[in-house]
Q: What sequence folds into this?
């Protein structure tokens, strides 16, 4: 399925456009904040081709897509439109720590690319200096230093914008307040006097460049201030007065109250961790390395970003990064072992790509698509990460920025502890690799059916017969063109070409000989791959997923081998109509791009089992499509 079809499938299983509150993405994950987690069909999402895994963190559903995430995101936002809805998400009741971690995660994820890019650039600059490729006195050095420092120095502005999206405040007003904290005049005022006042109220001297908590706390307050002002200010004056009063109220409170408090908390967290690390480096490294993959699984790993930034700001180096990379190396080792051991060709391809990504430094495909899925390799990852983390902790491995690794992070670790960085990574990789081979895992069974390519190769005499095939009607009723369906996803053929039927009998039969690849638990849709390669989606009614299966009975299950005429689904037509839903049923060839022509044969009334479409395959050469 192409990127648009994949995006549409993900959107459907997330509960449709109405359930999406906001969406963003990181290196490997599509991160969708939903209004109601109960309607998200996580199991179905995990079974979608090209979806490596699914992770739920609070109201955010993370769909792990690996390298496809950018392209799928581009198509996804076209389907959902505005990705920042105005109404706040109704979150499930949870503890204050859980809510705090959810907030930190959603605020930091969008800005991580900027921080990682700046961190790696800083490492490259150190590398160039170390080998005397650039001089510290040169203009080139000065430029590169500015490039690598900017994201950290102006971090309050980046965090302000991201936090405003999280707390549903005006992101541009928030960014302006972030700019106040790093304004050159404010910095000069702070450095020139120890007794600043604002209307007679003392203002504590503090440096907010690269700070984290002050601006997050400030934007949280700003969201409430904006809502109150919006509620009471007359509509005709809102555009002018709301932003002005918001800045006049929030900025002083940050400088007088929240800024000093946030600075004390941030410094305290950083100093506590550094103190614990310095006194118990081996233990701290082992515990963190062992726990890191599980922290990633539940989304808590981003909660350490403020501590890492605080350490960089205060001490010029970070120690958590070395522990992260040791765990990443263990993830790569275990996944490589799975790649070598698995007998499933499709899963071997997934594991191989995931192992390569993990060696570079992107571990989500390995974690969600391989080790956590197989479970036993995750134990090996934890043990390998613990040993590698213990080594990194004992020798105080230093990072010059925040990034990823092993390979991508090499420039960040160039310095006096570089050799111990290499040792910790190699040891973690080897231990997890060997342990995975020793303890083994329950392999994922190979698919029971042959692929289209296998059929063609093993039966070359059938090539001509496969060029043109007929699709039988799965329903009885009135045939309509797909363009007549009152749903732009189907009518514009985003998911593929096909036909639609308004059913008069509540039964869906298999239109082909093939295999069930998708059988929704809600009963409203079923996907079949025919023996000659056609991928057929039958979607009973429009938006009927919202009925949560009440009018439907799904009689098939994924992996079933079916023949034309086999009964797949039963449904109550009148119940669907009474609930206010359209019963028109699109029948879509989701791999339409593999066909030169798809022609509708039937118009008007049709009976189940009659031919309704002809599918003409693209011309083939030497047993393969051109």
A:
């Amino acid at each position: 399925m192409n990127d648009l079809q994949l995006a549409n499938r993900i959107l459907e299983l997330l509960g449709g456009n109405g359930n999406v509150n906001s969406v963003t993405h990181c290196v490997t994950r599509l991160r969708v904040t939903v209004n109601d987690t109960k309607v998200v069909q996580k199991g179905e999402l995990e079974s979608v081709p090209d979806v490596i895994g699914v992770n739920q963190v609070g109201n955010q559903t993370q769909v792990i897509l690996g390298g496809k995430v950018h392209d799928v995101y581009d198509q996804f936002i076209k389907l959902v439109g505005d990705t920042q809805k105005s109404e706040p998400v109704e979150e499930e009741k949870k503890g204050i720590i859980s809510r705090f971690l959810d907030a930190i995660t959603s605020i930091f994820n969008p800005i991580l690319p900027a921080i990682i890019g700046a961190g790696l650039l800083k490492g490259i600059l150190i590398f160039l200096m170390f080998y005397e490729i650039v001089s510290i006195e040169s203009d080139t050095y000065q430029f590169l230093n500015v490039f690598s420092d900017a994201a950290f120095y102006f971090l309050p502005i980046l965090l302000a914008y991201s936090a405003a999206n999280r707390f549903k405040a005006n992101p541009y007003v928030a960014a302006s307040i972030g700019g106040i904290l790093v304004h050159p005049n404010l910095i000069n005022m702070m450095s020139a006097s120890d007794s600043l006042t604002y209307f007679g109220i003392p203002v504590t001297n503090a440096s907010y460049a690269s700070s984290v908590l002050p601006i997050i706390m400030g934007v949280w307050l700003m969201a409430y201030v904006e809502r109150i002002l919006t509620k009471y200010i007359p509509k005709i004056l809102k555009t002018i007065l709301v932003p002005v009063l918001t800045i006049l109220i929030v900025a002083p409170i940050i400088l007088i109250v929240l800024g000093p408090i946030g600075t004390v908390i941030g410094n305290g967290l950083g100093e506590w961790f550094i103190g614990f690390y310095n006194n118990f480096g081996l233990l701290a490294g082992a515990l963190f390395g062992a726990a890191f993959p599980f922290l990633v699984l539940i989304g808590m790993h981003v909660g350490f970003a403020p501590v890492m930034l605080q350490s960089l700001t205060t001490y010029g180096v970070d120690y958590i990064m070395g522990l992260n990379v040791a765990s990443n190396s263990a993830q790569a080792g275990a996944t490589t072992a799975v790649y070598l051991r698995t007998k499933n060709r499709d899963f071997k391809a997934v594991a191989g790509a995931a192992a390569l990504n993990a060696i570079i430094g992107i571990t989500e495909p390995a974690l969600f698509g391989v080790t956590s899925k197989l479970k036993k390799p995750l134990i090996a990852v934890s043990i390998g990460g613990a040993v590698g983390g213990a080594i990194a902790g004992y020798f105080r491995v230093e990072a010059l920025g925040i990034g990823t690794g092993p390979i991508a992070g090499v420039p960040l670790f160039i310095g006096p502890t570089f050799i111990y960085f290499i040792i910790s990574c190699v040891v973690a990789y080897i231990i997890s690799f060997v342990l995975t081979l020793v303890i083994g895992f329950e392999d994922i069974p190979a698919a029971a059916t042959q692929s289209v390519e296998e059929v063609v190769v093993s039966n070359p005499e059938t090539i001509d017969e496969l060029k043109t095939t007929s699709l039988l009607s799965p329903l009885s009723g009135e045939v309509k063109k797909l363009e007549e369906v009152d749903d732009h996803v189907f009518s514009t053929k985003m998911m593929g070409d096909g036909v639609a039927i308004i059913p008069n009998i509540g039964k869906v039969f298999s239109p082909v000989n093939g295999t069930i690849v998708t059988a929704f638990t809600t009963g409203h849709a079923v996907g079949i791959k025919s023996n000659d390669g056609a991928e057929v989606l039958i979607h009973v009614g429009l938006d009927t997923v919202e009925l949560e299966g009440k009018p439907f009975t799904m009689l098939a299950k994924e992996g079933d081998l079916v023949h034309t005429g086999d009964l797949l689904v039963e449904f109550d037509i009148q119940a669907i109509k009474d609930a206010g839903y359209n019963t028109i049923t699109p029948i879509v060839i989701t791999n339409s791009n593999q066909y030169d022509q798809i022609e509708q044969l039937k118009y008007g009334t049709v009976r189940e089992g009659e031919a309704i479409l002809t599918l003409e395959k693209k011309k083939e050469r030497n047993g393969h499509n051109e």
About this structure: The chain has four domains: 3-93, 154-269, 280-439, 452-625. Residues 544 and 580 are 10 Å apart (CA to CA).
